[in-house]
């Protein structure tokens, strides 16, 4: 390890130690007594929930079976909180109470009885002692939103004692969340806390000063996290959708009640929509970059129907650093950036310069995506450069991800500079040349990628190159690079020769990957971002022994 690496790690350890100490100091001693207080006598409104609901899931829950996070827990007549839960993600979903939405679609009496039984058990088992996953700020924020949104189900035919316990707990959780908001992990968790507090300030009786304070704090977080191009500071394409599912009901609740809107709420929503369209393939799926997982069609449509911004997708998102080459029905999306900060890198991938390519409704080349419900080991595997459609050097990721439990899975080194040059043509063709220094410190090489889409949209040409900075033509002594093209599982592969493979979609559309410089290998692969779970797939690779082949050119051409 070089001295600079040691210095960087020392800084990161000291920084994390200071952050933890400061948070503990700011929070002080957390106890139930500290956040005790009065309870509202009623709720003013039940905000809308735009998340899709599933009647089958609702029937399962009323029958005592919880289908959450890719697992099913059969309670056999007991409360789920009395049982060992299948996974941490399952526990997050259970304690967040978003599953209440599914009960809207089943028999109202059964739904109300089930909801009251489980909420009441949560109040007994977790509502009195602050601690553990149930009181993680982002989980508490989701629970507050869910309890407010689905209070008609929970409170239907409820007796007065339960009604008071429910409202008292809501008020208690809101007071707790106000106290921990500033110390919540940066990114989506902190913004969701501010959304929940703004929602509570208008859905529950509150003083005018508390409503103004909640609106101001939300404004500050929106202004900081929703960047000028509409992208979220995490650089996760899926974040835009998840945030809209909360921001749109919040906006509508402000409108319905006639309250003054937070100043940044509508402008932020208006900025997010074009960024969401930027990442959308023509088949409706969102691109799989930097923590994004699969997107169900009904999730996307539930927010796109409120889109009033219109217009064609942008060609680039300069604030979060992505580029889009779109000619006719052909779309190539490229990651041309790096994490905005260390704090925002916990789900960021080592996929700089990776691409996704679609034509019409078919995705042909993708990244492997993030598994939604898999364990931590598999989630970290999905962040490696090899899980992206880009080149790796010497089986090494372009960005280094910490394995320290103390630091967490942050990015601790690698890419520090990305150069991008756009090459739009009057003919309608489009191209981009980009390079990064992720392999410079360890191997002394710069990686450069050139992507060009023809004016007809029927051909994509690519060039992959490794070179020494300051001496682009100098010989490279050693090293092996592998360029990977992860193929969507729905695409069939048919080798035509050592240098050509055809990619055929279910509707018959076909493209051919050709590389005359070296042979194309077909290998086993894993697609992490499938709704059914981790799924087997295929990948095409170009292996470059750099002493002999420091540069290769390839093409993808449509075949009728």
Automatic annotation (TrEMBL):
Organism: Shinella oryzae
Protein name: Heparinase II/III family protein
InterPro entries according to UniProt: Chondroitin_lyas (IPR008929), Hepar_II_III_C (IPR012480)
Heparinase II/III-like C-terminal domain boundaries: 310-555
Domain of life, source organism: Bacteria
Annotated compartments: Cell envelope
